[in-house]
Amino acid sequence: MTLAVEHYDCLVIGAGPGGYTAAIRAAQLGMKTACAEAFRDPAGKPVLGGTCLNVGCIPSKALLDSSHHFHHIAHEAKAHGITVEGLRLDLATMLARKDQVVRTLTQGIAGLFKKHGITWFQGSGRLRDGGQVEISPWEGGAPLTVSASHIIIATGSVPAALPGVPIDNDRICDSTGALAFTEVPARLGIIGAGIIGVELGSVWRRLGSEVVLLEALETWLPSADTDIARAAAKELKRQGLQIRLGCEVQGVERQGQEMHVAYRVGETIEWLVVDRLVVAVGRRPNTEGLGVEAAGVKLDARGFIEVDGQCRTTAEGIYAIGDVVAGPMLAHKASEEGVAVTERIAGQSPAVDHGLIPWVIYTWPEIAWVGPSEQALQLEGRAYRGGRFPLQASGRARAMGETAGLVKVLADAKTDRILGVHIFAPQASELIAEAVLAMAFDASAEDLARTVHAHPTLAEAIHEAALAVDGRPINL
Ligand code: FAD
Ligand code: AMP
Q1: 11-70, pLDDT tens digit by residue?
Q2: Minimal-distance CA residue to ligand 1 atom 35
Q3: Ligand 1 touching residue 320 (CB < 6 A)
Q4: Catalytic annotation, pick one of 75, 80, 354, 455
Q5: Distance from Cα 249 to the centre of ligand 2, integer Å
Q6: Any alpha helices (H) in 116-194, and if so which ranges?
Q7: Would residue 7 show up in a list of annotated catalytic residues for this protein?
Q8: C-alpha distances out from residue 19 to 31, 33, 126, 259, 420, Å
Q9: How far apart are CA 169 and CA 278, in angstroms?
């Protein structure tokens, strides 16, 4: 039997950064709002926050920070005159801290839902026609039918599978498993050297694993600026991360506790023997069991929900945002779409500028960029001027003992408008915000060059790179 419940102005399916943000904004705009979320924590308890908070951005950053401290104390502290004896890794505490960070934040979302009067349906939503969604509660029992004037699909993405490498959640896992190893693997293999692969590889390398990343492409991070990717590759190699390019994994054989990974290099098949294997070959949109056909919601050829420039699907009154639609699979892209879509429903005219979405890779130093790379501008045949500044010449980077990075500013040759900013530096994730803001206001490289930057800071490297666009850096 299906129980009928009340009508909502806005029903969101999925409570990741896209969905929970959309729900909060909808409630702020005065809509009667509900959100269905099926995610459960390892103890089986329903939780909000989606991939990002539970098994993505947040736990990975918690482990990246903890492992950075460990590595820094073990390898870098000595140069600062700090000697630590008896350094020991307490992985159980590190993992428990990560879990606590996650718990605090997911409970925070539950608190925000309560504060905004958002109804949380703890179960899985399935679209029906006529603006209805059937929700199967997580504890079982009869499904509920909810109707809504506006439905926002924010069901996110799930790890892509690799044929021949089945996840067994023991020796072979996806990113979720790799955030919860209870011991440091001696030999760790990672398939895919994209963002998730290198971040997870960094965590375990810093904690002592021998890490090999097998990457099918011949170029590492093709969408990053080539100079930045090259500098980062050199530094990661120095840290002991082995990134093997042009290696396409074909399959895996388990021999006792060992994983024998077969990969093709040109015409030959080679083998890598590891203790644990992580599959990090990308993510795919999550529309399983969502009932898209019944509701008239079309998918594109790659399985993403088809939307127009305003996140409207092919079905009247149904919208889709975040990882389940095309575009960068990033939390801030999802949440900005969530805000924009609800504001449009409320009659406002917001716009998300997809050309200004910052990318960040949380290696150490971090990689961050906004706008096209130099090679992309060349391919486009765009006339530009570039300025670069190495951290070797930065006073603050010297003081920190972190001189491996660089900053590059690319500006239109004629108008001087900033087209792209590319950073490889500690805290690049924070530094990039200045570039995004400058570009959002159509700033020129000269505007950046004329902006006072505090001294000594890493941000001065952006200032100097902007000066270098006009050939007048001061400290180089
Ligand atoms: P999700 O966060 O995937 O949330 C979708 C939610 O919908 C899930 O909770 C799911 O349970 C729920 N759901 C699905 N189907 C249904 C249904 N039928 N009924 C009810 N609920 C349903 N991005 C960054 O920007 N920065 C980072 O540092 C970063 N690090 C990452 C690290 C890792 C290891 C991973 C895996 C991802 C990382 N990402 C990062 C990507 C980021 O997590 C995603 O881009 C983001 O979570 C997408 O948000 P979303 O709201 O679209 O979907
Ligand atoms: P991302 O798209 O950032 O999530 O990264 C996933 C990476 O996995 C990409 O760089 C892909 O080229 C890589 N990849 C996909 N399939 C394979 C494979 N069979 N063997 C090795 N690498 C792969």
Answers
A1: 999 999 999 999 999 999 999 999 999 999 999 999 999 999 999 999 999 999 999 999
A2: 56
A3: no
A4: 455
A5: 9
A6: 175-178
A7: no
A8: 15, 11, 15, 38, 29
A9: 10
pTM: 0.97
Q: How far apart are CA 425 and CA 396, in angstroms?
A: 11
In this predicted structure, the answer to whether residue 1 has a pLDDT above a threshold of 60 is no
Assigned token pair, 14 = 């999925």
How does pLDDT run across 320-349, given as a tens digit for each residue?
Answer: 999 999 999 999 999 999 999 999 999 999
Residues in the ligand 2 pocket, defined by CB under 6 Å: 162, 191-196, 214-217, 248-249, 281-282
Ligand sitting nearest the alpha carbon of 290: 1
For ligand 1, mutation pick of 155, 174, 190 (most atoms within 8 Å of CB): 155
Number of other CB atoms surrounding residue 238 within 10 Å: 9
Q: Three-state SS for 21?
A: helix
Token pair recorded at residue 243: 């990134």
Pocket of ligand 1 contains residue 156 by CB under 6 Å: yes
Confidence bin at 4 (pLDDT 50/70/90): low
Give the confidence band of 6 by pLDDT, cuts at 50, 70, 90.
confident
Q: How confident is the model at residue 130, as a pLDDT?
A: 87
Distance CA 359, CA 347 (A): 30
Burial (0-12, 13-18, 19+ Cβ within 10 Å), 418: buried
* The two three-digit tokens of residue 52, written as one number: 């990002």
Closest CA to 134 of 289, 313, 288: 289
